[in-house]
Amino acid sequence: MYIASQKRKENIAEYLIYMWQIEDIIRANDLDIDKIKANVINRYTDLSDDQRRELTEWYESLIDMMRRESVEKTGHLQINKNVLASLVELHQALLRDPRFTQYTAEFYNTLPYIVELRSRAGEAAVGEIETCFNALYGMLMLRLGAKEISPETQNAIKQISRFIALLAAYFKKDSEEDLFKKD
Description:
mainly alpha, 0% strand
C-alpha cells in the first residue's frame, strides 16, 4: 500500500507493474488474508500496529475487488485497467501531437518488438501499450525465477523499457501541467 502509493506518484509504469505483482501475490496466497498476513504483511517488521492494520485492510479490499470482478485466477482489477487506459489515451494523444517527435520516434523504434510480441500472442493479442507492459512484467517474472534471458529478448526489453519510461515521464508531466491544454 505504501509502496504502491509512492510509485503511483513517482512513476505510473512502475506502479502498474507493482500492482500486477500484488494481484499475483494475492492469487499465490489463494486470496486468503491469513496467508497474506503470514507470507507478506508480517515480513514488514518496521510497521506500527496502525500501519499493519492499514496494510491488512488494503489487501482485504483488493481481495474483495478481485472476487467481485472475477479476476481470482487471471486478469487485472478495474483500477489497474483504468491506469492502462489512461496510458493508452496519453500515448495516442502524444502520437497525434507534432510537438512530441521524440516520443513518436521512440514508439516507432519499439514497434517492431511490439509486432513480434503480438504475433507470438496469437488470439490473446492486446493493444500496443499493454503488450509492452506484458513484456516488462514477463521479464520481471523471468528474473525472479532466475531464468536465462536471450540477448535478443534483453535488447527488446531494453527498447520497450526506454519507450515506457518516456511514456511514464510524460504521464507525470501531464498530471503536473496539462500537456494538451488549449490556450
